Amino acid sequence: MDERASVWPGAWVVRALLVFFVLAWILGPEALRDAVPIWIVFLIALGLEVQFLWGAWRSEQRRVPDRSPQAADRERLGYGDDVDELIIVGDGEHEVWLPYTEDAAEEGELGEDEAGAEAADAEEEEPPYEPEPETRRRPLRGFATGVAVISALTLTAWWVDSRTGWDSVDGEARLAAVERFSEEASRIAGKPVTIRCDESRDYVGFVQHADGVAIVGGDRAYVTPEICHDLYRLAFRGDVSGARTGRAIAVLAHEAWHLRGERDEGRTECFALQSGVELGVRLGLSEDRARQLMRQQLAENATRGAATVEYRIPPECVDGGSLDLRPDDPEFP
């Protein structure tokens, strides 16, 4: 059996795609690094390596095929199924299989005793195949190579992430940023509140679909490090990344409205996008740019899927509607 037969045929394709994706994650845009946690990719890659090892290891446990004359050979040579033992006779260069008889044993190069010994040996059960030490080491060597590649890519990804995301911001700058975020959230909440960047991922991020979380009416909210980094880049560096910046502003405003006491997610999002215009201006955007980003978030809100339908803005969230915070202002949000 081909050694590769026991390995899923598509595994090599997935393996190549994973390597390509990791390289794209490292060298590509920051949005990709923010959107996809790299540890998921590495877990899939490690699982593939284990599957490769198991498949290769099982293929080495196969037995040596039976090299005695098969039923088709016996039928072709005129020996029926009632012949239990065959021996080889000849001069060393021309050999044929014959039924074991005393005459056949005398005619062959083997003596009667030797032929009988050969026949007796043939009756013994064929021992299981034992791979050579080098053959046994081959799957382990391949597995070790795969793990080494995964480890190298993991270290590279960690190095890139530590110098491009929220982790790349030094401690003092982080404290200043978090203090600024808390001040802005307190304005919207109408009371002193605290914003925390959930660097340990205990509350938001990874498997949660939300970029922030807050206890309704409480005094503390958590947002993902990616949101913190986008807000930091805007407030402290003046960097704007289009929809990502708009999303970060909307998330901060959204959690602030929860802290203010608003429970319904749809209404909270409606109020957040309206407050997000002034928030964006205070963080360094022009009014036109801030309004443009919030309108973009408003348009994208209508495309939310079933998993986040509770965040969909209600019909009353329109200019002059019951949820319009400034009904006299023709601009919305």
Task: Describe this structure as you would to a colleague.
The structure is a single chain. The protein is mainly alpha-helical and about 325 residues long. The protein folds into 3 domains: about 5-65 and about 130-165; about 70-125, no CATH class; about 170-310. The chain is built from 12 helices and 5 strands. It has helices at about 10-25, 30-35, 40-60, 70-75, 100-105, 110-125, 135-160, 170-190, 225-235, 245-260, 265-280, 285-300; strands spanning about 85-90, 95-100, 195, 210-215, 220-225. The chain has a 3-stranded mixed beta sheet. Helix 11 (about 265-280) runs antiparallel to helix 12. Mean pLDDT is about 75; it is low at about 1-5 and about 110-115.
- Which oligomerization state do the chains in this entry correspond to? single chain
Average residue-wise pLDDT: 76
- Ends apart, CA distance between termini: 68 Å
**How would you write the strand order of the largest sheet?**
3-5-4
What proportion of the residues form beta strands (DSSP E)?
5-15%
Main beta sheet: 3 strands, mixed
Total count of strands: 5
Rg over CA atoms = 36 Å
Gross morphology is elongated
H-E order: HHHHEEHHHHEEEHHHH
- The domain count comes to 3
Task: Note the total helix count.
Answer: 12
Structural class: mainly alpha
Low-confidence stretches: 1-7, 108-116
State the helicity in percent bands. 40-55%
